[in-house]
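COMPLEX REQUEST
Ligand: iron/sulfur cluster
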Amino acid sequence: MSSISRTLIGFLLLLLAGACRAGGGSYEAELPPELTNSPDLCAHAPCKDVLPGAATFSPRMGRPSYVEGYAADGREAVGYVFLSTDIVDIPGYSGKPVVTLIGMDAKGLITGVKILKHSEPILLVGIPESELTKFCAQYIGRFVGSRIEVGKASSDEDTLGVDAISGATVTVIAENQLILRSGYEVAKQVGIVAVRPRPAAKFVAAAAPLSWEALLEEGSVQHIAVTQTQVGAEENGEPYIDLYFGYLNAPGVGVSVLGQDNYDRLLADLKPGEHAIFIVANGTGSFKGSGFVRGGIYDRIQVAQEVDSFTFRDTDYQNLYSVAAEGAPEFHEAGIFILRSAGFTAAFPWQLQLLANKVDEATGARAFVNFQQRYWLADRYFDGGRPAYHAPDPTWMRVWKAKRLEIAGLLLFLGVLAATYGQRERLARRATHKDKRWVMWPKYFFWTVSVFYIGFHAMAQPSVTQVLTWFHALVYEWRWELFLSDPFIFILWWFMFLTLLWWGRGLFCGWLCPYGALTELIYRSAGRLGLQRFQFLLPGRVHDRLKWVKYAVFAGLLGVSFYSMPLAERLAEVEPFKTTFLVGVFHRSWPFATFWAVLAFASAFTERPFCKYLCPLGAGLAIPSTFRLFGLKRKAECTSCAACAKGCGSLAIDTTGRIDQRECLLCLDCTVLYFDQSACPPLVKERKAREKAGLPLTAIGDDGYLLPLDGMKQALAAARMKPRPRAVTPT
Ligand code: SF4
Ligand code: SF4
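STATUS: Structure written out below.
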């Protein structure tokens, strides 16, 4: 191994050690398990920080749970403290919840918000804690029942706005939802806010009872299936739970499931505003829960309708001995649950949520996972059909709507980029080896927009952490919402994916990647300043070995991610992207700042050292580039002529003239040469031969040679070109 390789690898190890140490920040320290389990929440959480007026706190109470805070005299509750993960399951960008401790006074005004743990890649070792503290502080003094949106307040008078953290929009939208929804749930329980009544459904009389299959087919019985793997257990041939449920008040469903007599008895028991839901299941898991005690609450199931959720106490339970519908299988667990709230209506869609404990394979830690299924009775059960219902927009859609102008701008930019690259041969024909302005000017434009708009402004630098997230989503669970939640990243990845199949990674890496563009601008600016160029700093054989380092880094990160995603995310700091665009080099600790400075310094002298040797994202994109549909044009003589190879800044052309599509960044230098009759040796030879023979020079055809003299006019017309001006400069 050469000393250069050893130095590089040594430096990498130093950086990785720094990254791992940096991971010990307050947000990443493992939370004590007691925080989620112990009845005494405040013995393990800084409750006084979020409810400063309280001196003592009660044990966890209620469902979902919260604690009461008491003044020094201990007589009266001055407010409430609750842990977001006890109440809602709203994932952030990482797919994991942001664990947040929230305080609320006795009037429902938020008194404090403290993030205890998150796994958000963008914030993990990036955004300073002060930014999060500043974001959370915006909620203090606001009523939990207010409509608060991230970004500008909408035109609604009762909607307030809070400022987002630049580059972490998805995270803060999730955080906004979890603060407000947790607060609202607790405020409802303690009587600060009243449940908003919803209009009751009007049903038609029952028709003939339906079979089990017909009920399933029309959606009156819905299904939740959970595998052992989904709850972190070994597969054993049985599902964790195979659960069916339905709404019994509607005569058509109730009579089919219970039989006429049982249905009549049930309805006679129900008071106005009460709703009966049946749940039956098979599998190793239980929806009732083994730890259920008399007087307690069923903590594995709940019904959700928009922001409201409804739980069941033991008094809400009735036995269900069998399902009357013809063809219904046997179930080992069954029950009827009565939902007693005017806040619920069967007229609109709702969800049954099944909460299960999932064991993390790597750490053994337990976490709640939520499986849910939407339910809306078929049209024919309602008098007059299903009522009009406008579901609130999902979070990702709100983000897309809020950023529609920026999204349109990005799409336009990418469209212009693809169209420009599509015209590469026209541009290359206009340029010459000595004057590449026709190729370089568009690239300067794209690089500048990419660095300053996509990189610094939108903070949308794609990263290998997203590739890791997708691998995991493909293996475990694909959720479109996760990827739609950041429109810039979503659009950029689609663009990258499509252009990768078409042209290879070069269009992204060579023309669009904000960090790659920045290093190009550094390199070219340094050249203008007269700094020495070391384009071919490393001997060819050293380069040929070192270029594999980036593939090893990519494979290593992917492997580590299956052991521990947070560790892989920390190690992905080998990308200087966060330091450059998200956090800023002056906010980073010395290992990151030094790494960034070394790369920037090296980039001033040699073209894209990071892209050539280290970038795991570039490596991840390079692998499928092998199969791109359209490569660059080559001549037969390219196998022996090394002219292009000498100018290739990416060192992507080997001694046999073959372009390595994985390494090529589509700079177009070789394409310019290909069409340059003053620089491309076979073309020069042909031009000189014609000049010597006194024959006219013609335009250059797609094959990179002068067009034949016979039928020249037709050929020119077909190529829609004018003859090139004579270039007689000797080469
Ligand atoms: S190799 Fe990496 S840093 Fe370089 S342009 Fe490609 S993705 Fe960007
Ligand atoms: S000169 Fe090299 S990097 Fe540029 S387009 Fe040709 S092969 Fe690709």
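REMARKS: DSSP finds 30 helices and 16 strands in the chain. Confidence is low (pLDDT under 50) at residues 16-29, 153-157, 723-731.
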